[in-house]
Specification:
5-stranded parallel β-sheet, disordered C terminus, 421 residues, 13 helices, alpha/beta, 30% helix
C-alpha cells in the first residue's frame, strides 16, 4: 500500500517510512509565533531554561492586534521586540502583515517543508504543499528549543476538486462547500489532501492558500494541496512530493467546481453553509474584507472591480485590510486602493484586523457583518449576539453596495429595493 502526501512528508523528514497512527519525531523548518501568544511562549522557554536552538527558524509576527490597542498590548509588543533582538529571531513588526501571508512571501514556508505555528490557521501553508499545523505555546516552545517536534501521523481524507470554477464563484465558495460536506469535525486530526483535476489545476497560489486555510474548520491537522500549475512555476517542487497511486484514504470526496454556486456560512458555525440565495436580503451593518483567508491582491482586485463606479450603501461600514504590506503596496501601485477609497471603504493596517474581535472593527450587540474571514462563532468579532456571515470577496463587495446580502450579478436589479430586517 502506498503513502499519502502527509505520510510522504513525514516519512522524508523521519528518515524512514511512516504510516497513519505512528508517532514520529521530526525536525521542523520554521516555528512561527504570533503576538497574542508570545508572552506564554516566552514563559514556557523560561520554565524549560531554554533558548531557541536555531534562532533564524523562529519568527515572531505582530499581527493579531497591530497597532497596539492599549497600554498592556503595547508593553507586550515592546517585550517581543526586545526578545527578538536578544536572541536573534526575526520579528515582523506592526504593518508587515498577517503571519501566514508573511511566511509565504518571505519563503519561510516551502513545498515539502514542515512549519509549526501558534495559530490554528497554520494549515494555510498546505496551499503550496508545505505541512503546516497549529500548536499551543508549550509545544511551540519545545520545538523552538529543540528544533524538533513530535507528531502522530494523521489519517487522510482525499478531496478532489474537478473542473474550473463556475462564473461568479471563487475558491472561498469551494472551501466553504468542502467544510459543509466534511462538517466541523469530519476530519478531526486528519490531513485533508486536495487534488485539483480537469481544469482545477489552474487555481492560483492565492486560491490554494484559501482552500488550505479553511481545512482546520473541518478539524484537520493539516491541509495539503497537490502541487501543480502556478506552484510549479513559483517553487522548486521535489519530485517525491506527491501521494502514491495506491495510497490509503480514510474517506474520499469529490466537488464539481463547475456546478458550484456562491456560498455563505451562516451564524454561528462555519459548516452551516448555504447558497447565498438562502439569505439574500439580510441587512448588514459592516462588511469586512481581509484576513489570512481572503486579504490578498486578487481578493482586493475582485472587490475593486465590483465597487468601481459605485458607492458603499448608506449605513454600512466597509473595512478593507490587506493581508500584508506587500499586498498594500501592490494595490496602491495599480490603483486598486483609490477605487476602494472612492467607493467609501475604509483601509486598515495590514494584519488580522477585527477577525478575532479585539480592535479595528469590533461589532456591537445585534449588529450583522459579512466577512471574508474564516470563523463566525458567537463573540468572534465582538458582541455575543452579533451575527457574522462568511463569504467570498465578491459577495462581500456586492453586499456593501446593496446594504444587504447579495451577489454582484444581482446588483443591476436592486435599484429601489430595500433590505429585509
Amino acid at each position: 500500500m502506498g503513502l499519502t502526501l502527509a505520510e510522504k512528508i513525514l516519512s522524508k523528514r523521519a528518515g524512514r517510512e511512516v504510516r497513519a497512527g505512528e508517532l514520529v519525531v521530526v525536525e521542523v523548518d520554521q516555528v512561527m509565533v504570533v503576538d497574542s501568544i508570545a508572552g506564554s511562549f516566552f514563559k514556557r522557554l523560561e520554565e524549560l531554561q531554554a533558548t531557541p536552538r536555531f534562532p533564524h527558524k523562529v519568527a515572531i509576527v505582530i499581527d493579531h492586534v497591530a497597532p497596539a490597542a492599549n497600554v498592556e498590548v503595547a508593553k507586550a509588543q515592546k517585550e517581543i521586540r526586545a526578545w527578538g533582538n536578544r536572541y536573534g529571531c526575526p520579528v515582523f513588526d506592526v504593518g508587515r502583515g498577517i503571519c501566514h501571508q508573511v511566511l509565504v512571501e518571505e519563503r519561510l514556508a516551502l513545498p515539502g517543508g514542515i512549519v509549526l505555528g501558534s495559530d490554528s490557521h497554520s494549515t494555510t501553508y498546505g496551499g503550496i504543499g508545505c505541512f503546516g499545523t497549529g500548536m499551543g505555546a508549550t509545544d511551540i516552545a519545545l520545538a523552538a528549543a529543540s528544533g524538533r517536534t513530535w507528531l502522530r501521523v494523521p489519517e487522510t481524507v482525499k478531496v478532489t476538486f474537478r473542473g474550473q470554477l463556475a462564473p461568479g464563484t471563487t475558491a472561498k465558495d469551494a472551501a466553504l462547500e468542502m467544510v459543509r460536506v466534511l462538517t466541523a469535525d469530519g476530519a478531526t486530526y486528519m490531513s485533508i489532501e486536495m487534488h485539483l483535476l480537469d481544469g482545477a489545476e489552474s487555481l492560483t497560489r492565492s486560491q490554494r492558500l484559501t482552500l488550505a486555510n479553511l481545512t482546520v474548520e473541518a478539524g484537520a491537522k493539516c491541509g495539503l494541496v497537490l502541487p501543480s500549475g502556478e506552484i510549479l512555476d513559483l517553487y522548486e517542487v521535489p519530485g517525491w512530493l506527491y501521494p502514491d497511486p495506491d495510497a490509503v484514504y480514510a474517506r474520499e470526496v469529490e466537488i464539481d467546481l463547475a456546478a458550484l454556486t456562491p456560498r455563505v456560512s451562516v451564524p454561528f458555525y462555519v459548516d452551516n453553509v448555504e447558497e447565498v440565495s438562502a439569505v439574500r436580503g439580510k441587512r448588514v451593518d459592516q462588511v469586512f474584507v481581509g484576513t489570512c483567508t481572503n486579504g490578498r491582491l486578487d481578493d482586493l482586485h475582485e472587490v475593486a472591480a465590483i465597487l468601481k463606479g459605485r458607492k458603499v450603501a448608506l449605513g454600512v461600514r466597509m473595512l478593507i485590510i490587506p493581508a500584508s504590506s506587500q499586498v498594500l503596496e501592490e494595490a496602491a501601485a495599480d490603483g486598486t486602493l483609490l477605487t476602494l477609497l472612492q467607493a467609501g471603504a475604509t483601509l486598515g493596517t495590514p494584519g488580522c484586523g477585527p477577525c478575532m474581535g479585539r480592535h479595528q472593527g469590533v461589532l456591537a450587540p445585534g449588529e450583522v457583518c459579512v466577512s471574508t474571514s474564516n470563523r463566525n462563532f458567537k463573540g468572534r468579532m465582538g458582541a455575543a449576539d452579533a451575527e457574522i456571515y462568511l463569504a467570498s470577496p465578491r459577495v462581500a463587495a456586492a453586499t456593501a453596495v446593496a446594504g444587504f446580502i447579495t451577489t454582484p450579478e444581482e446588483l443591476p436589479e436592486l435599484e429601489g429595493q430595500t433590505s429585509q430586517v
